[in-house]
Amino acid sequence: MRSILTVTVICMFAVANGSYMTKDVKNGDKTFLVKQKAILEIFQHIHQPELHTSLWDDSKKYDVEQNLDHYTNVKAVKEFVDLYNHGMLPMEEIFSIHNEFHREEVIALFHLFYYAKDWDTFYKTMCWARFHVNEGMFVYALTVAILHRHDMQGIVLPAPYEIYPFYFFNDMVISKAQRYKMQGFYKMKKINDVYTAVIPSNYTSYYVHTGPDQRVAYFTEDIGLNSYYYYFHADYPFWMGGKEFGLYQDRRGEFYLYQHQQLLARYYLERLSNDLGEIPPFTWHKPITTGYYPYLRYYNGVPFPVRDNFYAATTDKSYLLEEIEDYEHRILEAIDQGYVILPNGEYANITTPASVEYLGNLIQSNGDSVNNRYYGYLEIISKFFLGGSFKMFNEYRFIPSVLEKFETTMRDPVFYQLYKRIIRFYYRFLDQFPSYTKEQLVFPGVKIESVEMDKLVTYFDKFDADITNAVDVEVFDTTTMQTTEMKKFGKMAHYQGEDFVIYARVPRLNHLPFSFNLNVVSDKSQKAVVVVFVGPKYDQYGNVYGVNENRENFFELEHFLVDLVPGKNLITRNSQDFSWFVKDRTTYFELYKKIMLAYQGQSKFPLDMSEAHCGFPARMMLPKGKKGGMPFQFFFMVSPYFAPKVERFTGYDPVLSCGVGSGARYIDQLPFGYPFERKIDESVWFTPNMKYYETMIYHKSETEVNPVVV
Questions:
Q1: How far apart are CA 615 and CA 610, in angstroms?
Q2: Residue 420 and residue 413: Cα distance in Å, rounded?
Q3: In this structure, what DSSP letter does residue 605 have?
Q4: In what helix (H) or strand (E) does residue 197 lie, and over which residues does it extend?
Q5: Cα–Cα distance measured from residue 269 to residue 277, given in angstroms and rounded to the nearest whole number
Q6: Where are the alpha helices (DSSP H) in 43-134?
Q7: Predicted model pTM
Q8: pLDDT for residue 4 is more than 90
Q9: Using CB atoms within 10 A as the burial measure, which of 133, 452, 697, 709 is most buried?
Q10: Which of 85, 241, 165 is nearest to 468 (CA)?
Q11: 620 pLDDT band (50/70/90 cuts)?
Q12: Which residue, 442, 454, 452, is CA-closest to 528?
């Protein structure tokens, strides 16, 4: 008699190709709580230098130059001291990692944090820097240092949109928040003894319609999606590389290309849901058709540059054209000729599939690229050319466009047009390899008999983000500030003896939870990998997509490991357990309350990866669809398991860390995007271990789904 087994899949956290973290939970001990409390406080009201008198006192007592022996890399610390003594980016000026002068200084500051020998040195260095270096530079360097120091595993950073609300919420929201503060809580209500204001927020499409791309502003300007992209570049900074940080062990070049290909695929699905179709191309020599009005301003009052429709970048930036086209030509030459040129003039072969790593590093111009001098900084120069920012006349008087800030770059529709152009290099490289044969695709003895899936429903719901950091507050002495019921929670936003919090309430795309069942037959016990993608069925004209032409449009939803048994296997998976995705971030206000209660011994502070910074926002999992339903197709494949070269979780705690730089993030050795990364030969494509499943995605109003929202 053949057995029937329900495979209970262990919930695992995956990034793209099965980098994952468990759902296990630990509790922070006292040492951890001290660190976590300090980190949260240091990021509060970042532009107010004397907000916390205790931090200011700690800062004044510390001298970096007198404590060189407290750092593991004295040379790097001396280099920072030399830069600081010479003069760095002044306070209140706008910081951008794309600016080469700013980049040199912030890397030196990162080294200061990264090479601190212990927590005591790190804390003192952090406090000193909080009051002595540019605010934006401080936030970036400290964020990257925390993410890359092994002794900071588990530390929860405030959401980027709560540290710097200016980069995520339009000027109207910020101005209203500041008016609330200046008018002394007028019309603000007390909730649990805290003055609380909720400000409705919307997207740029609410105020201006510059073109059809504004229809998907809810996607491109989503605060969770933009935070994800910011953290991706904090985990894998383009300026960081080498054996010391080990990012190359994570196949960073291939990962970089695949991440952007996936973002393009997900964006395209959203465009189809709004009758927009293909991402439009552009050329360097003609005006940029798509304008963008960000309605954002920097803290110092300077507005983000605007790019009008039919923006003629060639008018005042023509000197960049030759450089951009040179870099593109050199990359294409490397792909077509099958080798890259090394700095010493020798050649490195890139004619194998694994050489995609070389290509990704070259295109990103990262620290593991074999020749940045020759292949250049295509991304940085292209963003400056396209973004609408002004030519820099002073290294410290720089006004970056939204394209030139990782926190805001995905807001601009031209971001997707640029990366569509860049990803063509990726496919030009991949398309030189033969299609997978039937023998390479088939899983002998394994067949997907059927697929079952719940009804898919999306809707918009309201999300509250703590934007209290957008307003300045009165300076107070931490020894006398405890005058309200909130004193048990420590340092909150404070005004005239009262605590307050301001929220921005923004409508964001979401979906009802859903499950799928795979009925799989196996002829023996064996490990297998299940991959799940969602893609379009029809193009914008209603034509059915061919299998090969559609392969670039599939967005990966899941990649997980199962143990098959002989006979029938029922594999069940719920969307809330999908491994690449994380839930919404806890607000700063709530996070700080939790840490203070734990710090005072009144509760536990749980540590897990449910809100991991490296996870894609779960609410953005599905495209919007349409009210009457819109056809999409899911792709399921069960493949043989090929164990990774480095055992998973080696070198890091998966309950606390994303494992960046460990080389142990991935479930298997499959190429990113498998099996869609290669051209498809339809004559051998449809094997028993894969299945397409056609379904509809319905978009409903929040009131329509509210009775069944759980």
A1: 9
A2: 11
A3: -
A4: strand 194-200
A5: 9
A6: 53-60, 74-86, 100-114, 119-132
A7: 0.94
A8: no
A9: 133
A10: 165
A11: very high
A12: 442
